[in-house]
Amino acid sequence: MNRTAILEQIQKNVERLSAPDLPEYKYIPLHQKPSPSVATLHEIMRLLRTVIFPGFFGTEQEAQLGSIQYYTGVYLEKIYDLLQEQIYNGLCFEVERCCDSKDRASEISIAFINRIPHIKYLLSTDVKAILDGDPAAKSVSEIIFCYPAVYALLHQRVAHELFELGVPVLPRIITEMAHSQTGIDIHPGAQIGEYFSIDHGTGIVVGQTAIIGNHVRLYQGVTLGAKSFTLDEEGLPIDLPRHPIIEDYVTIYSNASILGRITIGRGSIIGGNIWLTHSVPPNSKISQSRIEEKFTEI
User: Fold this and answer.
1) 231 forms bridges with which residues in the sheet?
2) pLDDT band of 34, cuts 50, 70, 90
């Protein structure tokens, strides 16, 4: 095929791909509004990790006692500047007009800055819970530096605060960053208490309306999901509470699926590979039924 014929074929596809009103493309609209920058959100999370875990992820100079306050101030100011721009883009992402969004973005950004000490506190309890529950963990430094659970929980706890402050889009991007890196998928809307421990972590899924109490431990492959959801008149899902409530001091072992708006009572232990769709009272122990093995001689 000669070059002219090739360019003619390309032009036909240019015209088709550039037409936003073709019926077969109705679910891919032309997006002309400000969009968040994933690269900038990565930088914000890098700065937050440096502030929350001083000395682990920054430079040696930043870790000096006399320098921590200075660098913390510099980084918090930079976080504010970057975040307020991204929040503005998020507020404009799916609305027609952004007339007052700059002021709102500024207010939300400083409100988030004020929540960083609380995020650091929660993550400190998470590190302690991991240390207490994992004999392979030799120190808190190893956990902070190496464990994917800490990376995932940093992102979820940051995203949750932004979610609670009414920021669209950004929280989901932030949790998906951690999901892609660790295989741990926790929605930013999920409410998680203190001393939350994830062991191994790969394949964990926690839905948007899940509520997790204090001192809860999840193993790899656990799903806190929805059993079903309610549809509106147009057949679209309604955002109602549909994920489990996990009370304090609950342990859920690997590959258990806890589905629906059910409650797992305080102090319960849920065994591995369980499919659970009903509430259980406090101090329950749920495990698989034993299957008697029968052997036939040949």
Assistant:
1) 237
2) confident
What is the phi/psi pair of residue 12, to 5°? -60, -40
Q: How many CB atoms lie within 10 A of CB 153?
A: 26
Taking alpha carbons only, the member of 186, 164, 160 closest to residue 246 is 186
Question: Which option is the CATH number for 190-288: 2.40.50.140, 2.160.10.10, 3.30.190.20, 2.40.260.10?
Answer: 2.160.10.10
**Beta-bridge partner residues of 217:** 197, 251
| Mean per-residue pLDDT, 261-282 | 97
pLDDT at 63: 62
- Output 55 or 150, whichever has higher pLDDT: 150
- Closest listed residue to residue 225, CA positions, set 277, 173, 175: 277
- Which of 137, 134, 161 has the alpha carbon at shortest distance from 52? 161
- Judge whether 125 and 195 are in contact, CB under 8 Å: yes
Name 11's Cβ contacts closer than 8 Å, sequence gap at least 6: none
Quote the crossing angle between the two packed helices 116-133 and 148-164, to the nearest 10°: 150
Residue 98: phi, psi to the nearest 5?
-120, 40
